[in-house]
């Protein structure tokens, strides 16, 4: 019987010896130690080879970083809430942009551009608060307008202070007067903003608004900024020390998910299905959502922060008006998120717009989950056809998890959490420099780069520069063909996973130092 080289000799008092066989865990630990030593030796040899090439300061800093780096996470604390309400087209979104100091809310002369209640972080005189932009409030309306009014009423109930915006050039209308009882029942401090008082002469028009019985009207011009400082001073004075309904703090563990897709694929319906209540306006009219809507949703035992975005209709340079700014905000929301939940309408064939939305998420470097919504409207024959079409036209993102569901009936909605976890795990995957270079050594030995002009580019060294998304930097002796880079990406996925995340590869061509 052959002696186990890992067995330990244990001597007895009479001179005899007994061999103690190691456990499986001990064997695995010894093998891992030997593998680690081998990886370290190979890594040092490759580093020594790389030192013979001309390296820049940026290269040296990247190599010095090695595997020792961390990712910081942001945490948000609860803040009081200020809601901006009023009838359509009185300048609520313009006022929101004035308070924020940037063009954040979508603004257009057409009434009804804002449809959902949209939250922004704001600050005045050193006081932080959440500013809520709402759709126009109207009475005795139906359909989409009724849902918009309901969202405005919900914002009133959740606010600590309310800014009631009235058009000073028109005066108090019957709609304005019918809002007053609603505000009084809410029992919240109300700041009456008489907007469109663009000159000193027009400021006198604000005096007629005393008739509303809401106290002093503040003449302002949201467009030009006149009087907004005095109005905000009044808002800050009215804010309570603690929020009446505290907003939940965003913990470092809460993941941020962007719902993206072309118009009318069911993004808002899915948000409502996950939340178990109406959080966003849903209507058959395409393009109902204009502003990104941040909502904290609890499902699968955890809290997630979802961003419901406007549907991306066409290329950005071909859009105009509200659709143009909505597209810009969708892109910004996508870049602030960690994972994109890309919705596709399964009841119609895959379109060029669907592919473009997916590519936008890839270009932003987000983790991706593809959702075929409205699956309940598709028969068995169509399902086979859709699956084959997606395999053919989405071959570049075959690494993204896919789910078939129905947001309207909530069928298979419970599968989303697992798919999001899978994509985020791949998005945050980190490969040690030793394992990575051992992989490149095996890969280039078995499949070297093709000859180009009589020369064969060689990979000298590789390191993972960052995660979220995974980005690799390769030091080479020559340019790597795009086809060979795609081959490297495919083999990286086969070896290490990276399910649900794009992979970025940067190549740095370096010349050998001249001999002295």
Q: What's the number of extended β-strand segments?
A: 17
Radius of gyration: 30 Å
Unreliable stretches covering 5 or more consecutive residues: 1-7, 70-77, 106-117, 141-148, 245-251, 281-292, 314-326
How many separate structural domains? Answer: 3
Structural class by secondary-structure content: alpha/beta
Query: Which range best describes the helical content: under 10%, 10-25%, 25-40%, 40-55%, 55-70% or over 70%?
Result: 25-40%
Annotation field: number of helices: 14
CATH superfamily of the largest domain: P-loop containing nucleotide triphosphate hydrolases
What's the CATH architecture name of the largest domain?
3-Layer(aba) Sandwich
Distance between the termini: 60 Å
Q: Per the principal axes of the C-alpha atoms, what is the gross shape? A: elongated
Any idea of the CATH class of the largest domain? Alpha Beta
Strand order of the largest sheet: 4-5-3-6-7-8
What's the mean pLDDT score?
A: 78
CATH topology of the largest domain: Rossmann fold
């Amino acid at each position: 019987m052959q002696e186990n080289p890992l067995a330990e000799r244990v001597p007895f008092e009479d001179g005899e010896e007994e061999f103690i066989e190691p456990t499986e865990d001990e064997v695995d630990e010894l093998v891992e130690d030997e593998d680690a030593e081998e990886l370290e030796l190979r890594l040092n040899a490759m580093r020594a080879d790389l030192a013979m090439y001309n390296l820049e300061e940026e290269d040296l800093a990247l190599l010095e970083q090695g595997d020792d780096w961390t990712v910081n996470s942001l945490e948000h604390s609860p803040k009081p809430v200020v809601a901006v309400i009023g009838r359509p087209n009185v300048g609520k979104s313009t006022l929101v942009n004035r308070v924020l100091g940037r063009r954040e809310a979508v603004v257009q002369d057409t009434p009804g551009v804002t449809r959902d209640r949209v939250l922004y972080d704001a600050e005045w005189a050193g006081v932080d608060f959440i500013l809520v932009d709402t759709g126009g409030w109207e009475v005795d309306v139906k359909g989409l307008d009724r849902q918009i009014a309901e969202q405005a009423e919900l914002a009133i109930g959740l606010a600590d202070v309310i800014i009631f915006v009235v058009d000073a050039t028109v005066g108090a209308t019957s709609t304005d007067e019918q809002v007053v009882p609603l505000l009084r029942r809410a029992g919240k401090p109300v700041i009456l903003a008489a907007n469109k008082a663009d000159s000193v002469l027009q400021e006198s028009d604000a005096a007629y608004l005393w008739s509303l019985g809401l106290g002093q009207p503040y003449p302002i011009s949201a467009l030009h900024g006149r009087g907004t400082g005095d109005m905000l001073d009044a808002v800050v004075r009215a804010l309570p020390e603690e929020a009446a309904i505290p907003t939940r703090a965003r913990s470092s563990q809460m993941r941020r998910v962007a719902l993206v897709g072309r118009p009318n694929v069911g993004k808002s319906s899915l948000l409502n299905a996950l939340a178990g209540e109406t959080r966003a306006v849903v209507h058959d009219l395409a393009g109902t959502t204009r502003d990104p809507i941040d909502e904290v949703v609890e499902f699968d035992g955890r809290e997630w922060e979802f961003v419901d975005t406007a549907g991306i209709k066409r290329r950005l340079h071909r859009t105009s008006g509200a659709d143009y700014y909505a597209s810009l905000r969708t892109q910004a929301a996508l870049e602030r998120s960690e994972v994109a939940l890309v919705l596709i309408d399964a009841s119609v064939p895959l379109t060029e717009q669907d592919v473009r939305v997916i590519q936008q998420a890839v270009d932003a470097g987000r983790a991706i989950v593809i959702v075929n919504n409205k699956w309940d409207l598709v028969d068995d024959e169509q399902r086979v056809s859709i699956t084959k079409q997606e395999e053919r036209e989405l071959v570049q993102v075959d690494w993204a998890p896919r789910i078939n569901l129905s947001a309207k009936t909530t069928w298979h909605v419970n599968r989303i959490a697992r798919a999001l976890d899978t994509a985020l795990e791949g998005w945050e995957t980190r490969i040690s420099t030793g394992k990575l270079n051992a992989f490149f050594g095996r890969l280039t030995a078995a499949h070297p780069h093709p000859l180009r002009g009589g020369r064969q580019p060689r990979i000298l060294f590789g390191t993972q520069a960052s995660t979220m998304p995974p980005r690799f930097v390769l030091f080479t002796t020559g340019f790597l063909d795009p086809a060979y880079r795609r081959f490297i990406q495919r083999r990286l996925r086969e070896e290490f996973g990276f399910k649900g995340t794009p992979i970025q590869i940067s190549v740095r061509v370096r010349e050998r130092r001249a001999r002295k």
